[in-house]
């Protein structure tokens, strides 16, 4: 950034005061008492020069208000010494450069957060905090806590939260909820409830409906329905009314657990409620439950029911239908929904293409999978991590392992975030190719990148080792799994 340039050169040249020839020279005593004379005498202290020509006189500076031509203020009696203008300019330049540096590093922090590069984000954040002029804000901590939670780094989120408290930043219910969500994303239910209890003891950080909704989700995801009832009771005691989002989470949990009676009971309560009516997300939740279970008839039945309730579908609704039809290889219905979207001017999204790619990838149809991916890129649609997971799985299922390598390289070129699902897809491809050395290299890279392995990671690797009778490798992997859990 170009530094601001200030020109003070005019202050060092004398102005041309008009002289009255009829006035006689004053005495020395009179001169000493006259401050105006002191200014003029200082201005003409330089060696005599040629009189200014008429041309140069016409180009003289017109002084701005407050400027002292030909002298500095320190020549006046009783005026404090001013900082030299040269030093002032250096100071301003240094300040501008510091601001420019701060802006650049702040942009780097935002960029790392946007790209989900949590390790780089923490490094840049630590660099910024070392600067005296930088004061972290609540919003920055919130973004980092959310990023760490989504990246499977709950312990790092806890460390960051403690650092925030040590530095004097006041906690809020939102920040506590972000920390609690980080625990929930990593299935650390006990730590999440401990955070809830801590919030309840702080008057300014009382849990709200979002806090409870986050906890309810992790409970239903793990079929901890006994905890769900306790949370509902606690919400009632605190006069916190479950909203539509909360109820949609519960509907999804009951549906995934096959508790359809409870699911319909919750839905009936929503229909009778005045402030918690079902919405398009409710519709998406229900049809997604049946779609994922392959119960196409029930999915279509509930789709029609919600339409009769007056709830209109959205792009995500159609994407759920496409994904369900694709998994059952009902390509005609899948195409019909896509044509219907075009007809109603619903845009095809990345999720739309991912569902189609996933359908072809599941059966190893590399040709149609590549055609869909090419069309996706031609329409300017941005691929994401799931896109490349599907492509990698598709090439592996088709036995095209050389294309798996090309796909991984392309993902790096596109700066696709490498999360646990991405590494699992590559590890699975290596296992199918029976290339255990490459599988171990990918696993090591995964660990080096601070990407936490999950149950799928260990399951794929254990199965690969079992096929080769490598029991020592299985033992080492199980020990490593136990250490990671600690």
From TrEMBL:
PPR repeats mapped onto the chain? 137-171, 172-202, 208-242, 243-278, 279-313, 349-383, 419-453
Pfam families reported in the protein's UniProt record: PPR, PPR_2
Which domain of life, per UniProt?
A: Eukaryota
Record region (Disordered): 48-83
Note the PROSITE patterns from the entry.
PPR (PS51375)
User: Low complexity bias: where?
Assistant: 48-57
**What InterPro entries does the record point to?**
PPR5-like (IPR044179), PPR_rpt (IPR002885), TPR-like_helical_dom_sf (IPR011990)
UniProt keywords (A-Z) are:
Repeat
Spans through the membrane: none
Please give the Gene Ontology molecular function terms for this protein. Answer: mRNA binding
Similarity comment:
Belongs to the PPR family. P subfamily.
NCBIfam families the record matches: PPR (TIGR00756)
Annotated PANTHER family: BNAA05G30910D PROTEIN (PTHR47874:SF7), EXPRESSED PROTEIN (PTHR47874)
* Annotated protein name in UniProt: Pentatricopeptide repeat-containing protein
The protein's organism comes out as Quillaja saponaria
